[in-house]
Each structure stands twice: as structure tokens, then as C-alpha cells.
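Practice problem: predict the structure.
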Amino acid sequence: MIQNSLIVPRTIQKEAKKGVSLREKIARVNMFFGLENRSDCIWFYGVYGLSLSILVFTFVLSNILDTFHG
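Answer:
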């Protein structure tokens, strides 16, 4: 059985216990990826969101089609 500490890094676990706000977490992600202005954030999160949406859509669609043709 996999322990929870192996799945979630310890720094994130500590932040969850401290109650770090979502705004601070987003600021840390922006700093890590070098997103300096609003335009960079829009492009980064837009492309990431779109690709994730396409991935989820294809996953759901493939499961629906497998149900009908399986």
C-alpha cells in the first residue's frame, strides 16, 4: 500500500497544514515557471487548460464509445 507521504511532497503537506492561500500557491507557480506579467499567465494557463480539456474530453469520449461497442 502506498503511503500518502509518497504521493504528495512534504513541502505541499506542510503548506496544507499551515493553510497557505491559493493566491500564494499560484504566485509560487508563476515564479517557478518565470511568468512575469499577465500576458504570460494567460498564455501559460490557457494552453495548459486547453490541453487538459482536450485530454479529458478524449478520455470520456473513448470510454463512452467503448461502452457502446464493447
